[in-house]
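We modelled the chain as a single entity of 241 amino acids. Its sequence is:
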Amino acid sequence: MDYFLIVIILIIGGIIQSSCGFGAGLFCMSLLPFFLDYKIALPMMFLAGIVLNIRILFKTYKHIQWRIMVIPLAFSFIGRIFGQLAVNHLDSRYLQIVLGVMVTMTAIYQLFWREIFTIKNNFGTASAFGLTSGLMSGLASTGGPPLVIYLLNLKLEKYAYMATIQMLFLCGALFSVGLTSASGLIDQSVLLYSLVAIASILAGSFIGLKLFDKLNRLKLVKLVNIFLVITGLSLIIKSLI
């Protein structure tokens, strides 16, 4: 039963990311720790994310805005290093509490405050959002929202937005796989789970890309965020009991 639920979670994650541009990590990591050890779920999501990003880029790669990527990507690498160091030294229970707080606060922000704040496009903004995204990604594979906020502020055309953010995620995930591998967290069990994750998340991506032009993404994001608040709080409570 647990394996079936893991597959369903990953399929839904693939649908969300392929239709909205982000969200697979947030959605899947909010639920996978209920069924898998945190230090198995995290590298599994990095590996599955690489394949998912490549799948989406097959359709959108011509629209990548390379110049926009440089600063946030460089600083996201720095953030991922600090995130990985925390993963290496913290117990899975404490990591789940951190994940629950990050998921809950991110979802609340996107539900209530997203339209209130505007940001200036400069080196400081690009580096700050890149660093924050990298730290959240290294800790919990949840670094999408900072990059979404940054790129949406640039008012890119939707295919340029989708292609650029997927390339940022791809480069970051490749970097994190190198870090987790060097830390000894990628073993046979992670690789076996990753095969299932890749197949499931790819299935979801095919559905999501079909829906990309048809879905009301604002309504979908709102529903996902309400769900994330509930699961984020559940993670915190589960880890504290």
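As a brief sanity check on the tokenised model: The mean pLDDT is 86. DSSP finds ten helices and no strands in the chain.
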